[in-house]
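Final report, Chapter 2: Outcomes

The project's central promise was a pipeline that accepts a single protein chain and returns its three-dimensional structure in a standardized token representation, suitable for archiving and comparison. That pipeline is now operational. To close this chapter, we reproduce one record exactly as it appears in the project archive, with the input sequence first and the structure output second.
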Amino acid sequence: MDATATTRTDSILVSRSGASWPAILAGSAVIMAMTLVALSLGVGLGMTVVSPWSGSGVSATTFKVGTGIYFIVIAMIASGLGGHVTGRLRHRFTGIHDNEVYFRDTIHGFVAWSVAMVVGAAFLASAAGGIVGSAAPVAASAVSATAQNNGPSAGYVDRLLRTDTAAPAAAGQAESDPRPELVRLFAASIKDKQDLAPADRTYVVQVVARRTGLPPAEAEKRANDVITQAKADLDAARKATLQLALWLTASLFMGAFAASIAAAEAGTFRDRNWGVRTTA
């Protein structure tokens, strides 16, 4: 007898693929559809809790936190339902250990969530591109007509040049409107995320004093106040964008987790009832 002879019990090998793509695609469709429905509902609910009137509606902080929590909730519900559909519709695995079956069910849910996210992102990008393309001629004409006096920094320039009494103009000389130049100065500063150069700041103070009739000290104070307000608004926008990105990231992680667990539990439930026939 050969000493190297051993006894092995091999698992039954099947030629069927480990991935059940019809079930994955069905779960992905459910995830995308439920997400769209929940987002539409969220827009309606959001319009009912905000108000342009002072003292009405929820605060900005409450709205941002509520929006983030809603993102997480709809991600878990939609992904969980899609994962459940995937787990119930996948083909039965035979000849493999129960732990491997549980792992494959989990992967099925995760892949269904991944497909839904990729297809959903591509669809949103395509829709956004179509909207931008159709609106390009209108936007170009609007920009060419208003670029001189409008822009992200136009409001700050209006604050700089606000006055109750017009400053007297020089005899026989009509002064040109300084707004376009100041808008360009502030736009460049905001774009580069840097303070105005000392020479530009001095020029801004001189223009404010000349246009508003304020003393140089008060004109400089107004310029400093407006610049400080612009920085505060930019910082607030940056923080709001950061918080939204964090909430979206958390919702994506929770959606992936919910889809994976739901698919694993649904697959286990289906295998447990496989072949059981109920007669009335």
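Archive annotation: Residues 2 and 8 are 15 Å apart (CA to CA).
This record, like all others produced under the grant, will remain available to the consortium after the project formally closes.
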